[in-house]
């Protein structure tokens, strides 16, 4: 597959590194030679110094043979122009990074498709949705819904009160167990578990379950004493902060702290009266305490500095805040944030890359998610008639090691699977696998 990525910024570079490991034919283009110089030596990809919005530049990188053209420069209008030109020159599919929510409205998406922009991606909006999902319950690290919530993924950290520690998984109440343990993050290792694996103290455990069993998961994880989130304090008035404040449920009260008075004035215009805007330094603990930090269930750090966000969340934890969320854009710091027990970590690059990766798959995939802490991915496949996965019971399919089926949705109902389950055409199947293995799973769904 020939993939051209326009823009060697954070998202473009991360995506290029990710896809180069898959032995795809990757070309990364940018008009800043300095940004490209370090990459071609260390990764299996071709870098070309050319402008993504120049016809001659696009011809130089062979855009007419491109299966996928991805424009992720910081300039939205440039991305749109590059995609239109790329389609006109013969690219099969195009994706543009945007920062205007209006473009995503259904009537506008169709308009852009006609112009040659097949797909739009707004990383800040995706990040905000993920923050709000993780804040719905203070005891949850990651929360992801499939098919409108028919099946739910919950990632949570095991503390001393957990009831399921040190017991082999096959002894945890099978076959009537109302959940499936799909992945375990232990230290730096990610485990797709088998029946004889055990859950240990401080593991982050990823469960799939149905909505009615969430209280049961909470009980066995020993998290019943965690307060529900009603008050949220956000440090930093970024675009993600604005979207987060707009997406939170009505019962949550939000305060945003930012030290730039002009930005605070702008936030006041953008957000309604239920969001309180505070002009001040979010690193000043006295200010935060004065503004009610000790009565806050969730603290979200969204400044443009990863170190500041990590340290602010650490300080909030020490003040007794149960739920902290840090935006950590430096991928090297994500492991450190986890070892410091920050809580939920948000990384725009990884979220955007998951969505773009989905477009590379031939099978019918409606959801791909990268588990930020774990070196694992989750994908939701729709099963076509005649697919290989329908030919045998799950235990006889010969799924690759490092993969597991977390559950499925049949006729709108979430169903947990066992080795004796037979998957049928039309089912939505949720698959977990170690990073970069989705392509190996895909053949079972074609």
TrEMBL record:
SUPFAM superfamilies: NAD(P)-binding Rossmann-fold domains, TrkA C-terminal domain-like. Residues 141-223, 366-446 form the RCK C-terminal domain. This is Trk system potassium uptake protein TrkA. Residues 1-121, 229-346 form the RCK N-terminal domain. Keywords: Ion transport, NAD, Potassium, Potassium transport, Transport. GO terms for biological process: potassium ion transmembrane transport. One of its GO terms (cellular component) is plasma membrane. PANTHER family: POTASSIUM CHANNEL PROTEIN 2-RELATED-RELATED, TRK SYSTEM POTASSIUM UPTAKE PROTEIN TRKA. GO terms for molecular function: potassium channel activity.
